[in-house]
Amino acid sequence: MGIMLLMALENIIPPIPSELIMGLGGIAVARGDMQFWPLLGWGTLGATLGNYVLFLIADRLGYERLRPVIERWGRWLTLEWHDVEKAGHFLRRHGHWVVFLMRFMPMFRTVISIPAGLAHMSHMRFLLFTAAGAAIWNVLLILGGQWLGHTLSQAEQWLGYATLAVAAITVVFYVWRVVNWKRRPR
Question: Interior CA angle at 77 toward 72 and 100, to 5°?
Answer without folding.
Answer: 125
